[in-house]
Design goal:
Length: about 575
């Protein structure tokens, strides 16, 4: 049997502890539907785990989950790790070829999936040896593969469990046992299989729980994929650790849907990627100011701007249900202008920084800490050490390295890649550039691989230029690249804005209008940049860039200055 300390750092212990303390309180469910209580949730986990065990799932086996967020996703995951088996969450937006690669490499014994995803396994080269279970109860009308519905599978398991008077016995699970193998969806093109232990994930959730007061019963609205560590640790394990209720959006969170869900659920917390807040800022905040000459004038003066922003901030809190205490922002860098607005509007946001390899949180908050600088990711979280390797003597910028109980065990079946980022004494090289200020705030300056080194030896950080470009309300996203020694940018415009501004004019005049916008922006931005970093040209891109699950552009697809239209 494991020691108390080991058991306390397993996901199983976290769930059992909460189910004991909060048995009759609501735990998890779809938004605007009746949730399961902690007691009901635990019973379903035990029943599913017992059936999987009886059907041959053993400690160390790989079981995959390929589906959209739901309480059934959570039950499946927790039943898998209850047995000491290893969950392989697969991002729902991965293409079929990637899904096949993962399922083949992992030799998956059981697959939990949904109707939206099932076509991806029709052409799978390897036959599944165990059942394919549909989390949304899809019955598979086309008999390409045989499926079992989650409800029927679970109901039979519940009946069997309830017929046995004693609690089921499961294999002992320790803190260093693997809980998940997650495939990164990075910007560098090569997806790696990250091995995370029970302790990696729970240590990160415990540390996150100390960043602000969290009351049992608080509602956490989940809009990001659970198959990404950001939402899994912060939006699933963390609320369950604290006795919260997780409500799954169930649909793509457009502003209209999000407003309706928030009005009903009145969430305490939501975790989002910057894109969500940047869209709100550009679509709901800037237009209010731009349409009024008086407001534009007032916002040029500090006190006036703060007064207006706070008024808008109150409306935003109402939009999110009126009870929001935490808008967690992570997965990518937040535009500095948007953060300045959130800060002056007194909107309850908290920026976090992390990566899959660190389960994921490295720095963030704590909430209410007045020394946190705008543009930073706050302080390293409790229990995690952060050092800047080989800092530049002038700027203090170097590679961010991390050590702590949240750092992965390595990459699956890839010693070479593991050794490249993980030292023998547990320090992880993140591949990110950063610096600390004199108040221990961590500033992330971009990816090490993205830095453009000019012929004169100067470094250009493309992300910093992209932030400047993205502040324009007619820009959706941008990418800065080097092309034969010149710095260029590609911009995907907001075509709704363009359509409105060019209504009634000819196509050639519309083209001239866009070209003038791009050139005017280039000149304005170059005034803010060092001579060596100035943009030689800005091009229009006519479709969105291909992105990762957390909406970071896959830069490797556009390297060498070639951006395919």
């Amino acid at each position: 049997m494991n020691s108390g300390v080991e058991v306390g750092m397993t996901i199983n212990y976290v769930i059992d502890s909460s189910c004991s303390k909060y048995k009759d309180m609501p735990a998890i469910g779809m938004a605007m539907e009746q949730p399961l209580t902690y007691g009901e949730f635990q019973l379903r986990i035990f029943a599913l785990a017992a059936r999987l065990r009886d059907e041959g799932v053993e400690k160390g086996d790989h079981l995959a989950i390929l589906g959209e967020n739901s309480h059934n996703w959570g039950i499946a995951y927790l039943a898998i790790v209850r047995l000491g088996a290893i969950a392989v969450p697969i991002l729902p937006d991965l293409p079929e070829s990637d899904v096949h690669h993962i399922l083949n490499e992992m030799q998956v014994k059981v697959l939990f999936t949904t109707q939206k995803q099932i076509e991806k396994i029709y052409e799978l080269r390897r036959e599944m040896t165990g059942p394919i279970i549909t989390l949304d109860d899809y019955e598979g009308q086309i008999a390409v593969v045989t499926v079992l519905t989650f409800s029927s599978y679970l109901n039979a398991a519940m009946e069997k469990l309830q017929a046995i008077p004693e609690q089921p016995v499961f294999p002992p699970v320790g803190e260093d046992d693997l809980a998940s193998i997650l495939y990164t969806s990075g910007t560098s093109g090569y997806s790696k299989a990250v091995m995370l232990s029970h302790k990696n994930l729970t240590a990160n959730a415990y540390a996150a729980s100390s960043l602000m007061p969290i009351k049992p019963g608080s509602v956490w609205l989940s809009i990001l994929p659970m198959s990404h560590t950001y939402e899994f640790t912060c939006g699933f394990i963390l609320p369950l650790l604290c006795g919260g209720r997780v409500a799954y959006a169930g649909k793509t969170p457009t502003p209209a849907i999000l407003q309706k869900l928030c009005e009903h659920e009145k969430p305490f917390a939501i975790f989002a990627v910057p894109l969500v807040l940047e869209k709100i800022y550009k679509k709901r905040v800037l237009p209010q100011i731009e349409k009024s000459g008086l407001l534009k004038l007032i916002c040029k003066i500090g006190p006036g701007r703060r007064f207006i922003y706070r008024k808008i901030g109150k409306k935003l809190r109402t939009f999110f249900g009126g009870n929001l205490q935490l808008m967690g922002v992570g997965g990518a860098a937040l535009n500095p202008d948007v953060e300045k607005f959130l800060y002056e509007a007194k909107f309850p946001y908290l920026i976090g920084y992390g990566m899959t390899e660190s389960a994921p949180l490295i720095a963030g908050g704590p909430a209410g800490e007045k020394s946190i600088a705008i543009g930073s990711t706050g302080k390293p979280i409790p229990g995690v050490q952060v050092k800047i390797a080989d800092p530049d003597p002038q700027t203090g910028i170097g590679e961010i390295t991390v050590c702590g109980p949240n750092v992965m065990q390595g990459y699956f079946n890839d010693r070479e890649s593991t050794a490249a980022v993980l030292t023998a004494d547990g320090w992880l090289s993140t591949g990110d550039l950063g610096r600390f200020d004199d108040r221990n705030n961590l500033f992330v300056c971009g990816r090490l691989k993205n830095v453009i080194v000019l012929a004169n030896g100067e470094n250009v950080y493309p992300e910093a230029i992209e932030h400047k470009i993205n502040t324009y309300n007619w820009v959706v996203e941008s990418l800065v690249v080097e092309n034969n020694g010149l710095i260029e940018a590609w911009v995907y415009p907001d075509y709704e804005f363009i359509d409105e501004a060019t209504a009634g004019i000819s196509r050639s005049d519309r083209r001239t209008y866009i070209e003038n916008l791009l050139e005017s922006m280039r000149q304005e931005i170059n005034e803010q940049l060092a001579k060596s970093a100035r943009l030689s040209k800005i091009f229009e891109r006519r479709e969105p860039f291909i992105k990762t699950a957390t909406h970071k552009i896959k830069r490797y697809l556009y390297s060498g200055g070639t951006v395919v239209l």
